[in-house]
Design a protein that fits this description.
- This protein is of the alpha+beta class.
- The protein has 4 helices and 8 strands, in the order βββαβββαβααβ.
- Strand 5 and strand 6 form a beta hairpin.
- It is globular.
Length: 114
């Protein structure tokens, strides 16, 4: 049993999420990056069709380093990172302030009992 199998290191994980207009998510990752993920392409997949309901979409939360919704809907954190863009590429400081003021930010908190 001297052989230890190791995989690639984990990619960045989500610390906070803010639902934005036009079915986008403002994500803060544990590497300090703020990125924007456009969820609209997910609507083509049956598992994510419920996200087309704006009120439901905005119930997004952070769990286990990723984003989740009720009804067991979640998305891979590595894919969130890979398919998102750096926030300052599309979100100006004034837009970001407006989003932060109008939306609830969800943070990941570790529960030591897990």
């Amino acid at each position: 049993m001297d052989d230890i199998i190791t995989g690639a290191p984990l990619g960045p994980r989500v610390l906070t999420v803010v639902p934005m207009d036009d079915f986008k998510l403002l994500l803060t990752f544990n590497n300090g990056e703020k990125r924007v993920f456009d969820a609209k392409p997910l609507f083509l997949l049956n598992a994510f069709r419920a996200l087309q309901n704006k009120a439901f979409f905005e119930t997004v939360k952070v769990a286990y380093g990723s984003v989740v919704w009720e009804n067991d809907i979640d998305y891979c954190p590595d894919t969130l990172y890979a398919e998102s863009v750096v926030a300052d590429e599309i979100v100006t400081t004034s837009n970001l302030s407006a989003v932060a003021e109008s939306k609830v930010e969800y943070r990941y908190t570790s529960n030591e009992d897990d």
